[in-house]
Amino acid sequence: MLAVLPEELRPQAARRLAANEPVLRRLLAGLYGGQADFEGWLGGLMASLGALYAARPAELRALDERRAAQPDWFLSQRMLGYCAYVQNFGGDLNGVAARIPYLQEMGVSYLHLLPFLRARAGENDGGFAVSSFDDVEPSLGTNADLVSLTGQLRAAGISLCSDFILNHVADDHAWAIAAKTGDAAARAMFLVYPDREMPDRYERTLGQVFPQVAPGNFVQVDAMGGWVWSTFYPYQWDLNYANPAVFAEMAATMLRLANRGIEVFRLDSTAFLWKREGTNSMNQPEAHQILQALRAIVDIVAPGVLLKAEAIVPTKELPAYLGSADARECHIAYHSSLMAASWLALSEQGTSALREVIRNTPELPPAATWLSYVRCHDDIGWNVLRAEAGADGGDANARLARASRFFAGAEGSYAVGAAFQSTDPNAAHGSNGSAASLAGLEAANTEQERELAMRRLLLLHGLALSFGALPVLYMGDELAMENDYSYLHRPQHAMDSRWLQRPVLDRARWKSRDYAGGGGGRMYQSLLRLLQVRRQHDALAANAPRTLLADAPDGMLALARGERFVTLMNFSGQPQTYALQGQWTDCLDGGILDGAVTLEPYAMHWLERGATA
Ligand code: GLC
Question: Does 378 sit in the ligand 1 pocket, CB within 6 Å?
């Protein structure tokens, strides 16, 4: 690797290699050491990394150095994420650049743009079926627009996060096209079986992501002479990470994107990277080794870059994605259990499962954090909560299925949403719908109902913002945007109710966001206040200590952040009382509280010790 670098970069590269190469070599030898000419392959990989190191723009290399010197830079309470589809937020990449002032108004420092690379024509799972990782989707802009956008964002103090869909490619990606014409090397990038024997054996223990519209995990492809592994939609072909060529190609692909200025990669569907017969082929040890190897590569070539794991898995499987002090993996991981449990708490008006999730959330290694969120582009998956929902000895499935029905509007609910991929009324299917509609705003008829819905929406945001994580807002939620039903008229989307929560930014709400009178403005102004208070309190940093206060009533969640900060959140429709020790100031409204405090339905307090106002 050093040989391909220019003289002036060698001392720095030599230092990073000394720190990370032994780990990388060990991981790759574990995964691929049994392959013929492993050493030759590894040499080729390192040379390709060297070329990408040399090609890294000077500005990004400077960023790498600054961040390597302060590896916990992203744990500050001043970090705030925002997530949007390019087409819905700005129309195209240049339109997103035009919205930078809006992001700055909220204090956003991290922008996750959902897939914007060239996607399969026709159905493409919202861009999650990628045809080319090296080209921007033409309808969204050009590669030059991307470089320009990353530069403008960086100048505004905002890191661009891009999905890196490393588990699968579209069936019209160059590798798939070559494989279909009989190219053996391209075919080896995928998992292909001549008949049903192996697929049937695997299926015995595999789950299903889209059981209704994409049943099974294999698709029969005549041009491939057999069955191709496709965990998600049939046009998303899983990559074969047992083939070292896949690893080398994908590592280089990620670094090429990093060299265009992408600072954070959302590693999509990481749980599925390695398959093993007799298991559900999720969270396998090799999947973690692959991620750790990618981390070592980033630490060598682009240490300013962050890796974020998207693994929607049970709470106990989550921490592994953040590695440990001596086995670094991703920097950030979605806390999908916390998110789902906060909605479950609303539906039950009780916090027992939410508390269980928090108790099951361990301390993290240094320079790693959870990602907290209220909603995202996907469904709220209930199954990640099986352990917590059954912790009281009850029927976890029945409990989660009730939540699923609640958010589909049944059970006397205020929510307007849809069960995802639901055929079985007793199963705990995921829930779709915008945060505002699920919180009751769409169904609200009276001012009082609107007020309660708004409180619920703020409450969930309050938890995400105060938990101690990197919080990410989902576009539209800041303006309390409701469900979007237009997908029902688009044939390529009509069968996938996740489009309910993927609206185009409502310009009218956006324009009137300063007027607290309207629905959008009311949410926006209240949220801005939370964001502002959060920035001021380092007790709310991702790595500041967090303690669950066990003496709160079941309808309420009480979290201490260090010695001087407490959040009280009422998840129920009844007033809840909590006995404070000493005097506290409500950071949101300046009120002074002392002794017993009663929270109105769905109300929240962010309290700082003492009378500081
Ligand atoms: C992730 C995405 C989801 C997509 C899937 C397949 O879970 O968040 O939207 O359908 O991966 O790429």
Answer: yes
